[in-house]
Amino acid sequence: MKTSLVTVLVLALHAQSGFAQDRLECLLPQGGRILMEGSCKALYGNHPDVCDTQYATRYLGPNGAAPVELGITSMRRTDDSGTPAEMCANFYVRDGAVHASGAEYGQYRKVAEGQLTSVQAKPHYDKDVEKQANRASARRALSYPGYARMAVQGATWVVEVALTRWDWGHYADADFYRQPLSHVSQTLSTDQGESWSAPVITSESRLFTIGASALDQPDAAKPGAATIADKVQERRALLAQGKQLVLRCRLPDQSEFVLSGMLSDDEHELPPFVPLASITYLGAPGRAPIGVDPDLALLMDLPTAAAGPAQDQVCNGAGLANSIPYIGITMLDQDGKRFTRFSYPDKIWFPGDPPRQVMQLLMRQHLTYGIKVALTRRGKLIGLEYPLVPQACASDARDGKPPSCPVSAVLRSESRDNGMSWSDLEFSTTSWIFAPGKSIDQQPGGATFKKE
């Protein structure tokens, strides 16, 4: 029976044992499939979203070819909506052969003409590689998204490690694995892995496509995007069942962001936070509601009444700037029909600490950044701003409650190509979004909390 299902990820959670059964199917570009099945021991109680799993792996060739057992593949699941794509990207087709990572470091497997071969390729890496990467990438460091490839090209063994211009400490994007590859660390062997050349950081890759992300390599296996979206929707549909917590963030023009989460059936114990199930924007009367992807709003959980002041602060990430509503780093499109997420510029940090030169500037001005980011549009020009508040005020927290500090200045980055590229952060005492002298939670364009 023919099926269009290219990715299947079924999790059966066993609350008592902490084990989960996992099945994943990946589609290769030439029509073959990779099937993976395994169970994992949850590292954190009964939450198997982070675990080491040993997957029994099988390759099914196109046109009904006999299956080939690849043995065990070791992978770590990280996120239930991103895991299928991250895992499938480890399998790819080159020169008619299927390549797969192994159960241990340095093991590479290949299936050609229905036959499985495996080699060990373990070049030596050291700190000089990282130093070279930083020198080769000018002002921006390179980071390793977790993908390596090996191929035999004539008498030469080639091992490459993918690198991207992204770093937890200095650059930012919510989806690390979607950042385009800019370089590889490449090393060669001409004696079947006995000795290796010194690694070279280069943008001339033999095994990866530079400019495409690790998940978007044209020769890599890919899960069906619709199936991943369905998985996310299934999870949210489950969260939407039962008793709901509803919080409203009202904007100055009386439009609202409506946030909902799932409350426990246990009426005797109210948890401080519950999972966020959905966000809806309600504009002018008579206009259709607009759904906002919760993953794009920088908000994972909703505070309940048990969380105390946290409910009053839940709307701090939303607001209205130049008559344009935003929540997190998501803003209403010019046509007013959908909300679009804008990736953080690679010169802006999140999460983590700001770049050194920015931190030095803030120290000279005796300022620190508020826990907020906002963006707006002026014609075709988009501005993203971090508010800055006096350092002395920000450090004056009392009774666990953050102080109310006036905005003194902003750090702003601008984009003229709808967020594809951004200018360097600029210090400015004038803002497109924030009113000077007023605290972040008292901004005239900020959303205010309205409890149901």
Kindly describe this structure.
There is one protein chain. By secondary structure, this protein is mainly beta. The protein contains six helices and 28 strands. Among the domains are: 121-220, no CATH class; 240-451, no CATH class.
Specify the overall morphology.
globular
Radius of gyration: 25 Å
Structural class: mainly beta
Strand content: 35-45%
Q: N-to-C terminal Cα separation, in Å?
A: 50 Å
> Largest sheet, if any?
6 strands, antiparallel
Overall pLDDT, averaged?
76
Low-confidence stretches: 1-20, 42-50, 78-82, 167-174, 225-229
Helix content: 10-25%
Quickly count the helices.
6
Number of strands: 28
Signal peptide: 1-20
Keywords: Signal
Topology:
Layout: E1 12-14, E2 19-27, E3 33-41, E4 51-60, E5 68-77, H1 83-88, E6 91-94, E7 97-101, E8 107-112, E9 115-120, H2 127-136, E10 148-153, E11 156-164, E12 181-189, E13 200-202, H3 225-239, E14 244-250, E15 256-262, E16 273-282, E17 290-292, E18 301-303, H4 310-313, E19 318-321, E20 324-327, E21 330-332, E22 339-341, H5 356-365, E23 367-369, E24 374-378, E25 381-390, H6 391-394, E26 409-415, E27 426-428, E28 448-451
Antiparallel strand pairs: 1-2, 2-3, 3-4, 4-5, 6-7, 7-8, 8-9, 10-11, 11-12, 12-13, 14-15, 14-28, 15-16, 16-17, 16-18, 19-20, 20-21, 21-22, 23-25, 24-25, 25-26, 26-27
Task: Briefly say what this structure is.
With 452 residues, this protein is mainly β.
What labels would you give this structure?
six-stranded antiparallel sheet; mainly beta; five-stranded antiparallel sheet; 6 helices; disordered N terminus; about 10% helix; 28 strands; single chain; about 450 residues; globular
